[in-house]
Hints:
Blueprint: H1 2-17, H2 20-37, H3 39-42, E1 64-71, H4 81-87, E2 94-104, E3 107-112, E4 122-126, E5 139-144, H5 155-191, H6 193-208, H7 211-222, H8 226-235, H9 238-252, H10 256-263, H11 268-276, H12 281-305, H13 316-323, H14 333-359
Antiparallel strand pairs: 1-2, 1-5, 2-3, 3-4
Transmembrane segments: 20-43, 165-191, 198-220, 226-245, 280-298, 333-356
Protein name: ABC transporter permease
Pfam family, one: BPD_transp_1
Amino acid sequence: MLNRNNSLTSLALQKFKRNFWGVFSLGIIVCIGLVSILAYLFAPDDSMNANQMHLSIHSKPPGFEVQMLTIPSSIESEQSFLSKLFFGVENTNTEIPIQSFKVLNNELHYVEYTSDGLQGIEKQIPLERFPNSEYNNYIENRTFIFGTDKYGRDYLSRILIGSRISFFIGFIAVFISLVVGLLMGSLAGYYGGKVDAVIMWIINVTWSIPTLLLVIAITLALGKGFWQVFIAVGLTMWVEVARVVRGQIISAKEMQYVTAARALGYTDYRIITKHILPNIFGPLIVISAANFAAAILIESGLSFLGIGAQPPMASWGAMIKDHYNYIILGKPYLALIPGICIMLLVMAFMLVGNALRDALDVRA
């Protein structure tokens, strides 16, 4: 039996490797996953939530360059490396976009940046504010590859950090849906009778409620927030898992290996977890991949409606909400870039799901 299982696994893996779009999509998912985990290493703005605002350079196009003056703060921030890696840097310095600067009488005179060819306000700051009066180390030419958003924040950094919510909501939502769906589906399929009737009634009632409406209701009950959205999405996706598990167990419990397990006196828990569920794992993998994509779309919709991840937290759906009106104002990229990111990630999960379905089809 072990050799047979290994041969079937090897065969499925070989079939998956031959699917170009499946392997390519899996590579995209892995890359986005690494970027989401290490977002603050790749983001030009590594402050918490990439929330450095510069209203004077708001809504600038991709490739925009400006001189940036950083005024060091006297407040010292004590952060561990892991805290900076996963939560960003607690930036207490002040950043000011400038047009020009000069040094007069031990003071740094600078002209603040203004758009539309206007002359900015000239201000000055003592050179003593800079360590060893080395002001040159605190003036740099900064390039915004994706431009800036309507608050003047680096858009590339917001996109990279926003990938965290869209990516990890899939894992958490699918985990919750698997836990609840496996429990409900296993009980309904294995025991049948009144247990099946009650659980199917719950499934049908849940199924009849529009998904987005149910998520909104759960979100409002739990409150707005980061984890509340994850839980709400997961609690609405267990129905599909429960229906699949119920159908598979109804078919599997009539098999000879289940009858043999009962004859040996094994408990129902062991029969379900050790004998039935491992043999219906294939369909669960496929539906989990589809649920990943569905969770990403639901979270994006919630963020667009304003009840998902709350500001200043970066989220692709919230970024579309903040900038969708810029489509008719001549700057459609502000809404299109996060929209393309969502489309790319959802498409990757759907293609991986299709490839897994074909690879796990033993009849092919």
